[in-house]
Amino acid sequence: MEQPPPCWIFSSGPVGDPPKPDEHPVDTLEVRELTGARDHKVFSGKIDRPSRSLGEKAIVIALRAPEGDFRDWDSIDRWGEALAGEIQDQAVRPPAN
User: Fold this and answer.
1) Is 44 exposed, middle or buried (0-12, 13-18, 19+ CB in 10 A)?
2) What is the pLDDT of residue 96?
3) Strand partners, 68
4) Regarding predicted confidence, which is higher, 89 or 73?
5) Do the beta carbons of residue 36 and residue 8 sit within 8 Å?
6) Residue 6 gets which letter from DSSP?
7) What are phi and psi of 49, to 5 degrees?
């Protein structure tokens, strides 16, 4: 039986310094189980005033979330490079039976 390809998931959303909300996204455990994801990573996000719907604006106001781009591209790049290394290692070293 062939193994499925490796899978990782990420969430984007916390904003501010320190990032809020600091709770883990609600459904990540279920998504990890359904997809067989090896890991889940949360990255800070971006709040852009012009692109928000009325409902999103209400949530931002209720949470007092700051506007701005809080994404850490260096952290995102490092995570992607680590995943590429894991995939490469797996390709070189077949899984044990």
Assistant:
1) buried
2) 64
3) 47
4) 73
5) no
6) P
7) -50, -50
Which run of H or of E encompasses 91? helix 73-92
Which of 41, 45, 39 is closest to 12 using CA atoms?
45
Count H helices, E strands: the chain?
3, 4
Structure tokens at 57: 């604006």
What is the token pair recorded at 28? 């990540």
Six token digits for residue 87: 């995939």
Give the pLDDT of residue 95.
60
Average pLDDT across the chain, whole number? 85
Long-range contacts of 22-29 (CB under 8 A, 24+ apart): none
- Token code pair at residue 16: 């501010």
Say if residues 87 and 6 touch (Cβ distance below 8 Å).
yes
Cβ within 8 Å of residue 41, ≥6 positions away: 8, 9, 10, 11, 79
Q: Is 54 helix (H, G, I), strand (E, B) or coil?
A: helix
Q: How far apart are CA 79 and CA 97, in angstroms?
A: 28
